[in-house]
């Protein structure tokens, strides 16, 4: 029994070291990983040195400015992630026999969607499953789900990566809007090509081609090259500029629903829109995880009809 207990402790320590190794590789920093895991930097360095000694390879190249994974470390990282996924998958396979979900969920999404909708929904999920640990990362770019070790990426727009599985959350679209004051001053465009003569407020989302708006209309999909004197990667800013009368904006319907209802913005060229459904994306190897499935279903339910739902109907003629 004593030897068995020692073996169990050794295995648990090895798994913790693998998790630590993956976190350092993802963060590119010993200090950031130690902070995230609640460990001291010296303890982290000691554990990685022990892991390198046990594997017989150097995992990281360390300089005063950065930490990078060596070629041997890249190979070890793939094994480490597979081992950790398999261990978690085994636990998840029996999750329906337990009354409570547990473990870490790593989720990424865009800034506006995360702050206004996903984060409060995840807080509600955590209340239902108090043994879950949730890490939410808000990014102004599209996440590398596998490379950055996320379980779920909640994103707007089509999913093109063949190795990912897309779960539709909400059907939505981007529409064109402007303030009544701007339209009174400059006039409303009568056709898509006239946008080239207007001030367009440029918002670059995580997957958008900057300065080119592609919209579907009566004659199919068309593109128009737009210009403007102000631009941002944060939709809050460009929406506020639009309300202040500085130009035309293209943004998700749920992002401007309140402003449309209040009359602060009105829809421009209502026959045109850009598909912008909301998806929860997972890697194929994670599709059987019970906690991920529960999280996705909860997100879908709450984004559709909960208190933090995305409003996509009944405003702006949509």
Topology summary:
Elements lengths: L1 H26 L2 H8 L3 H15 L4 E3 L4 E3 L1 H23 L9 E8 H18 L3 E8 L12 E5 L7 E7 L2 E6 L1 H7 L13 E4 L8 E6 L2 E6 L5 E2 L2 H9 L4 E5 H10 L3 E3 L5 E2 L2 E6 L6 H16 L13
Parallel strand pairs: 3-4, 3-5, 8-11, 8-12
Antiparallel strand pairs: 1-2, 5-15, 6-15, 7-12, 7-13, 7-14, 9-10
Helix pairs in contact: 1-2, 1-3, 1-4, 2-3, 5-9
Structure report:
It is a single chain. The chain is an alpha/beta fold and 318 residues long. The chain folds into 3 domains: 2-93, Winged helix-like DNA-binding domain superfamily/Winged helix DNA-binding domain (Arc Repressor Mutant, subunit A, Orthogonal Bundle), CATH 1.10.10; 95-171 and 277-305, Periplasmic binding protein-like II (D-Maltodextrin-Binding Protein, domain 2), CATH 3.40.190; 173-275, 3-Layer(aba) Sandwich (D-Maltodextrin-Binding Protein, domain 2). Helix content is 42%, strand content 23%. It contains 9 helices and 15 strands. It has helices at residues 2-27, 30-37, 41-55, 71-93, 111-128, 180-186, 235-243, 253-262, 290-305; strands spanning 60-62, 67-69, 103-110, 132-139, 152-156, 164-170, 173-178, 200-203, 212-217, 220-225, 231-232, 248-252, 266-268, 274-275, 278-283. The strands form 4 sheets. Strands 7, 8, 11, 12, 13 and 14 form a 6-stranded mixed sheet that branches. The longest helix has 26 residues, at 2-27.
């Amino acid at each position: 029994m004593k030897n068995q207990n020692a073996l169990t402790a050794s295995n648990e320590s090895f798994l913790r070291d693998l998790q630590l190794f993956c976190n350092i590789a993802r963060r590119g920093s010993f200090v950031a990983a130690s902070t995230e895991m609640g460990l001291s930097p010296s303890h982290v360095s000691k554990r990685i040195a022990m892991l390198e000694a046990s594997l017989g390879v150097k995992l990281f190249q360390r300089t005063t400015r950065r930490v990078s994974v060596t070629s041997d470390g890249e190979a070890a990282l793939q094994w480490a992630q597979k081992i950790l996924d398999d261990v978690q998958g085994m636990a998840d396979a029996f999750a329906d026999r337990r009354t409570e979900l547990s473990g870490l969920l790593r989720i990424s999404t865009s800034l506006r969607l995360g702050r206004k909708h996903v984060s409060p929904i995840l807080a509600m999920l955590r209340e239902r499953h108090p043994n879950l640990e949730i890490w939410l990362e808000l990014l102004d770019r599209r996440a590398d789900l596998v490379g950055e070790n996320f379980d779920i990426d909640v994103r707007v727009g089509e999913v093109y990566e063949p190795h990912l599985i897309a779960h539709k959350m909400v059907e939505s679209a981007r529409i064109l809007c402007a303030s009544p004051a701007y339209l009174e001053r400059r006039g409303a465009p009568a056709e898509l090509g006239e946008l080239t003569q207007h001030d367009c407020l440029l918002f670059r989302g995580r997957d958008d081609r900057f300065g080119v708006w592609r919209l579907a209309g009566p004659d199919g999909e068309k593109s128009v090259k737009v210009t403007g004197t102000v631009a941002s990667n944060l939709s809050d800013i460009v929406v506020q500029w639009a309300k202040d009368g500085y130009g035309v904006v293209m943004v998700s319907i749920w992002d401007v629903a309140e402003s449309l209802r209040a009359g602060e913005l009105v829809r421009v060229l209502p026959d045109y829109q850009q598909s912008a459904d909301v998806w929860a994306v997972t890697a194929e190897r994670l599709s059987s995880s019970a906690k991920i499935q529960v999280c996705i279903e909860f997100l879908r339910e709450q984004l559709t009809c909960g208190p933090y739902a995305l409003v996509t109907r009944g405003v702006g003629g949509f």
